[in-house]
Amino acid sequence: MAAVLYRLGRFSFRRRGRVLAAWLILLALLGGAAAAFSGPTTDNFTMPGTESQRALDSLRRQFPQAGGTTGTIVVAAPEGGKLDPAALAPIVREAAAVPGVLAAMDPFQVGAVSPDGRHALVQVQFDSPLDKITDAQRAAYERAGATTPGLRVEHGGEIMKAEVEIGSTEAFGVLIAAVVLVVTFGSLVAAGMTLLNALIGVGAGMAGLFSLSGVVELSNVAPVLALMLGLAVGIDYSLFITSRYRQYLAEGMEAEEAAGRATGTAGSAVVFAGATVIIALAGLAVVGIPFLSVMGLAAAATVALAVLVALTLLPAILGFAGARVLPRRQRAGADTGTGDDREAMGFRWGRLVTRLRVPVLVVAVVVLGALALPARDMRLALPDAGTAAEGSTAREAYDLISEGFGPGFNGRLIAVVTGDDAQATANAAKQAAGAIQTTPGVLAVTPPQANAQGTTALLTVIPKTGPADAATEQTVHAIRERMNDIQGARVALSGVTAIGIDISAKLADAMPVYLLLVVGLSILLLLLVFRSVLVPLKAALGFLLTIGATFGITVAIFQQGHLADLLGVGRPGPLVSFLPILLIGILFGLAMDYEVFLVSRMREDFVHGDTAQRATVNGLGHNARVVTAAALIMTSVFGGFVFMHDPIIKSMGFALAVGVLIDAFVVRMTLVPAVMSLLGRAAWWLPRPLARVLPNLDIEGESLSRRPEEPAPAVIGAG
């Protein structure tokens, strides 16, 4: 492995003009494809095979006029006043005139007026699903009744779900990353080229992703996730290789040879670190939920591009930069960079941790265990307008509905009755309405609405509690149990709450398979990398501590509300249903990044003759500065997304930022050296039968240390 990447690094360094031109041409082609073929993203969460999805599919086939997106215009009279039909009639007419609207219901005709007469709901039915609604339609809907004098009018419903926009908050994270790079390298050239390299890679990845969005249904979270990871790992991988290149230059090595050696050694770690991230993300496809599979594969492809860019484009850019990647004092010869390395903080920290390894282990495990405690109460659901930012139109409508009608009106459920003939359907719908009305937790059930053929009937169910309330989940289960007794037709329950319950159930079923696949494959990969049985097991156990503490902190803030105002959390509530499995996949991959970066250097020193204890201290000492910078960069990139209003992106960015901090500083740079010190030489134990079977991938560059300094011209000339 090291020898192949060594030759690739030297080739890219020597042919830097051609390599850079090739990447710029590819970037331009992908950008053109994105402009020509990109399609809209969607926030539809589809789960094939679930009851809620079967209900929606049945509606689209048998009752298409009820299958489009909906809107709810909430009207309120001044305090102490009452609404009258004459005041609402113009609002209903304006809503009905919006392009694409099939019908707007008069509240006084359908009974959508609050008991005190002060609030009313104008239900608006569109003929198209949400992802087909245009900005012009949404703007026209928001204008309906907005200027009605003397009345408060708020616009809510599915149509008000806005697409996630990428803007200045992400740039804030990149700016912090740039500052960290300048401080780490002490060179604007090194920081700038590292950042440029990562931006080219993430630009190519995002362009490729959007070029496919015209033929693949892409959730609006997928591009944001790909951007998060592409930026984070792109900068980190470039940082790691550049740091090794600078080290070789400071030792007096010729620039082209230094680029080859850096790509061969640090690049090998990048390949396997990237492979663990890709495995973890691509493994999301086993869950069987299409939008989650697309998210995982899109992010995995972006990470793969980041690895390829780091191995090819980065050596080329290093060729243009030359010795300018070093601080000015080193280029002038005043500081070789080797005189006081062992006095660096990383070495001092390594000696301290290995000396106090038992107390360090106990304290760290206890603290992480305590942080994980809130995760016991974790609840999952799909986000609703109640978690939207305060002051937003969707949030104002949500709060006004709760004020006038009760929280259950924001979490309406849909019961779909489908029979073979009209009579059977009508009888079953009547049975269903009666059974649902007497179910604990149900406030009201609307009379059945049948399609033209009478074979499908629709009942709207109003629970007593809000969509994110645990009691509503119990109500859904109770209704479904009662529907099992309905004879003569098929009854399925859907709605936002029901969809969230079905997602959670499907994810719970898929979680063991996913963990077995991802952790199992990654342990096998680390077994190949380190040729050790205990090191991969230690890495996996450390990850469990990371994920437990991360879930605990995220639950404490986003669900329980501690420090929620500080982070701009609109309203504490359950975590989004797919967040746990997504975080497990992403954080496992990123955790293995730092494991590979740190432990590969420990093994490198051990293979080259150091004792196990000295290799542990040296491995941490040499890489602590780089891993610290990498962790701060990842945290700043992920942290930039915390400032977005979308609750899914906000919670995802926060959890990833916290997870990276915990894993890098507590687990990898504290627990790992403590455990490695306890294990000593046993850390590198590998049974002889296994040693004979496993290939020696040589990521430590042992083969490079035995070869002549200048073997490359003949090799590269062949290419």
Automatic annotation (TrEMBL):
Keywords: Cell membrane, Membrane, Transmembrane, Transmembrane helix. It comes from Streptosporangium jomthongense. SUPFAM superfamilies: Multidrug efflux transporter AcrB transmembrane domain. It holds the Pfam family MMPL. It comes from the Bacteria. It is found in: Cell membrane. Residues 188-320 form the SSD domain. The chain crosses the membrane at residues 171-191, 198-216, 222-241, 262-291, 297-321, 356-375, 511-530, 537-558, 578-599, 620-642, 654-679. Its main location: membrane. This is MMPL family transporter. It is a multi-pass membrane protein. Belongs to the resistance-nodulation-cell division (RND) (TC 2.A.6) family. MmpL subfamily. The keyword Methyltransferase does not apply. The keyword Cell inner membrane does not apply.
